[in-house]
Amino acid sequence: MARTRSIESDSTAANDKSEQILQGAMQEFLTHGYAGTSMDKVAKTAGVSKATVYSHFADKEGLFAALVERLAEEKLVYFPVPETEPAVALRLMATNILEKNRKRPEFMTFVRLVIAESGRFPELAQTFVRNLAKPGMDRLTEYLASHPELKLSDPEATAQIFIGSLVYFQLTQEIMHGKDIIPMESERLIESLLHLILSPPSNS
Is residue 98 domain-shared with residue 192, that is, in the same domain? Predict the structure, then answer.
């Protein structure tokens, strides 16, 4: 029993240390960008030794990937569960994505970082798309395909349109500071998206 408690304690300590490093890494990436961040800086900001950082993450790219994976785990809770009807699920997902991201300025700044660094470090952008964008897109595609009553000819393309519209809205409104130039209420956007997907196709 004592041995079991010791193993559990060690695991908890490791998880806490890993989270401490990730928080320090996030702060450094957002402040200095990917190129300007070093494992030394991460260690200092996280309050741990450089050896401790390397014991959890092999290199800076792995550290960045771990941050993306953690964000992906948080974001995927926004997507609907199969037993929820489309009118409710799609509205909830769209609202959660727009509202929760707006209330998480560090996430929006992180997206800016990925976009800014994508030219020099395309693998970072691919890590973001692979771990965050694609799983959400796949889940929504599967959900839409499981509801034949929607009569969608291409659930995957519809998922791209739905999520793409939300991403573009945040890109122009929040990331590129365009809300005064092309003002749009989020509820107005959501209503139009739901109308496009939920309205039955015309027989004429």
Answer: yes
Whole-angstrom CA distances from 90 to 94, 136, 195 are 6, 13, 11
The mean pLDDT of 15-22, rounded to a whole number, is 88
Which pairs count as long-range contacts for 56-62, CB under 8 Å and 24+ apart, including other chains? 56/14, 56/17, 56/18, 56/21, 57/21, 60/34, 61/123, 61/124, 61/127
Give the structural domain span for 113.
74-198
Label residue 13 by pLDDT band (50, 70, 90): low
Q: What is the CA radius of gyration of the chain?
A: 20
The reply to whether 34 and 104 lie within a common domain is no
Check pLDDT > 70 for residue 111: yes
Is the same domain home to 91 and 156?
A: yes
pLDDT of residue 87: 94
What percent of the chain is predicted at pLDDT more than 90?
55
Q: Do residues 82 and 146 touch, judged by C-beta distance below 8 A?
A: yes
Cα–Cα distances in angstroms (integers) from residue 44 to residues 12, 19, 49, in the given order: 22, 14, 7
Residue 161 has a pLDDT of 95
Q: What is the pTM of this model?
A: 0.79
Contact 203, 92 (CB under 8 A): no
Cα separations (Å) of 153 from 109, 146, 193, 199? Answer: 36, 13, 16, 13
